[in-house]
Design brief:
The complex is a heterodimer of chains A (292) and B (235). Chain A is mainly α and 292 residues long. Chain A is built from eleven helices and four strands. In chain A, the strands form two sheets. In chain A, strands 1-4 form a two-stranded antiparallel ribbon. A two-stranded antiparallel sheet of chain A has the order 2-3. In chain B, 39% of the residues lie in helices and 26% in strands. Classes of the chains: A mainly alpha (292), B alpha/beta (235). Chain A: This is Branched-chain amino acid ABC transporter permease. Chain A: One of its GO terms (biological process) is D-alanine transmembrane transport. Chain A: It is found in: Cell membrane.
Chain lengths: 292, 235
């Protein structure tokens, strides 16, 4: 029973990783950049949610929406200021810039508001416990998982059915060919950052509700782990990020369940190393073949 | 319809086009022939906005379009079918065609043009829901052309439509190019198969190392000894 409970924890944690990993993978898919500032967008989202709930006295859904909107704008701002001028630069230049942006956000944020942590109020979502076959389940876990699933379904609909989603897929496959269709590549890239950042914002709010404590450097570790999740699923592949995130959450929970909870963080990176050695294209990646 | 005056185009420090001038009249099929690396594709990319000319003018219907963004050039009615088809292999045939009409808002017109594309290329209709990466080379060429037509172009730029295709299929594609031209679309065709290109074109320009070395009516060029020896396999 303990095991099943840990699995449920793992799924909750995993759905947070998955939401963050989606932003990594979408951005990588379209501009081939690992946006290391993405974990900090998640942090900003968490704080925006916190202030919406405590200062503006809003409930969960409006706070979630505000956080997603602010993060979407923030993501576009980062892209326009920091990454767009480097569009034709080397990939290492963009990567180093991403690390710089990440540090700038973290310490800029601390400079402005201080480093002290905050605690999410614990009555944002109902915390009833109910028993199913002897397993006690917290209603929060269910709600968190539900919100993550709904967001992922909406994302899939946007990517596959909407015009902007088709433009995103076209640009990520072949930017020049997309230009020839009349697609505005810059706007499409901005839209990708907006959507990915909005998901990170949602993850931030969910994280706050589930783990209570938030602080300005909270984005570092979940950000890196979400990156691992994205690589695990196959970087650039959207369903891969979803599955990779959930899987990583479950692996961590199982490691904790086995009594090695101190090793939790290390295991995520062991997974990264193993994937890079044995399956660098990830679970969902395939080796592309070209046709003449 | 299109007038190019003395353009110079560079890839970094390497000059790919050296003072090229040419003109295309409405309703014509004009072909650019020349060896690999002569600059034919570069010229098409400069027209469609993928490359910016450093000097010179590109004038389309009285407007200067040299250096404009690719999406505004598509909007003005120039579609470019790039070399190697460049279909979106990760999407279905239908999605590729929809992307061709990306800038259009007239739903009824889009639907009508879809039907027209199916008429020209019945194979695409059979494969509508298939991932376009699974199509044969010939089908991908058809898709690339159909996708470009979905933008309702008045000038169609075709880059090596015969590349890598079986002779029978090439014949079919070239027949369709003539059909498209008959419905009022002006065509600029880049082709290594000079014989074939001259057989459907009204006029031709011969490109060599970034310069136009010869131009004229197709019949004249076909008859010219120089062309025969250099490009038509000689006798």
């Amino acid at each position: 029973m303990e095991l099943i409970q840990q699995l449920i924890n793992g799924v909750s944690l995993g759905s947070i990783y998955a939401l963050i990993a989606l932003g990594y993978t979408m951005v990588y898919g379209i501009v081939k950049l690992i946006n290391f500032a993405h974990g900090d967008v998640f942090m900003v989202g968490s704080f925006v949610g916190f202030y919406s709930i405590t200062v503006l006295d809003l409930s969960f859904v409006p706070a979630l929406l505000i956080s997603m909107t602010v993060c979407a704008l923030f993501g576009v701002l980062i892209e326009r200021i920091a990454y767009k001028p480097l569009r034709n630069a080397t990939r290492i230049a963009a990567l180093i810039t991403a690390i710089g942006v990440s540090l700038l956000i973290e310490y800029g944020f601390i400079y402005v508001r201080g480093a002290q942590p905050e605690a999410y109020p614990n009555d944002v979502l109902p915390t009833d416990k109910f028993n199913i076959f002897g397993v006690s389940i917290n209603s929060q876990s269910i709600l968190i998982f539900g919100v993550a699933v709904v967001l992922m379904i909406i994302l899939q609909i946007i990517v596959h059915k909407s015009k902007i989603g088709k433009a995103m897929r076209a640009v990520s496959y072949d930017a020049d060919a997309a230009k020839l269709m009349g697609i505005n590549v810059d706007n499409t890239i901005s839209a990708t950052f907006a959507i990915g950042s909005a998901l990170a914002g949602a993850a931030g709010v969910i994280f706050g509700i589930y783990y209570i404590k938030i602080e300005p450097l909270m984005g570092v570790l979940p950000g890196l782990k979400a990156f691992v999740a994205a690589v695990l699923g196959g970087i650039g592949i959207i369903p891969g990020a979803m599955v990779g995130g959930l899987l990583l959450g479950v692996i961590e929970a199982l490691v904790s369940a086995a009594g090695y909870s101190l090793w939790r963080d290390a295991v995520a990176f062991v997974v990264l190393i193993l994937i890079l050695i044995f399956m660098p294209q990830g679970l969902f990646g395939k080796n592309k073949k070209e046709k003449v | 319809m299109l007038k190019i005056e003395d353009i110079n185009v560079y890839y970094g420090n390497i000059q790919a086009l050296k003072g090229i001038s040419l003109s295309i009249n409405e309703g014509e099929i004009v072909t650019l022939i020349g060896a690999n690396g002569a600059g034919k594709s570069t010229l098409l990319k400069s027209i469609s906005g993928l490359l910016k000319p450093k000097q010179g003018k590109i004038i389309y219907e009285g407007d200067s379009i040299g250096g404009k963004a690719a999406q505004s050039i598509v909007k003005m009615g120039i579609s470019h079918v790039p070399e190697g088809r460049r279909v979106f292999a990760n999407m279905t045939v239908e999605e590729n065609l929809q992307l061709g009409a990306y800038l259009r808002k007239d739903k009824a017109g889009i639907k009508q043009d879809m039907e027209k594309v199916y008429e020209l290329f019945p194979r695409l209709l059979e494969r509508l829901k298939q991932q376009s990466g699974t199509l044969s080379g010939g089908e991908q060429q058809m898709l690339a052309m159909g996708r470009a037509l979905m933008a309702k172009p008045r000038l169609l730029l075709l880059d090596e439509p015969s590349m890598g295709l079986a002779p029978l299929l090439v014949k079919q594609i070239f027949h369709i190019i003539e059909e498209i031209n008959k419905t009022g679309t002006t065509i600029l065709l880049v082709e290594q198969n000079a014989n074939l290109a001259l057989s459907i074109a009204d006029r031709a320009y011969v490109v060599e190392t970034g310069r136009i070395v010869l131009s004229g009516k197709s019949e004249e060029l076909t008859a010219s000894e120089e062309i025969k020896n250099a490009y038509l396999g000689g006798h």
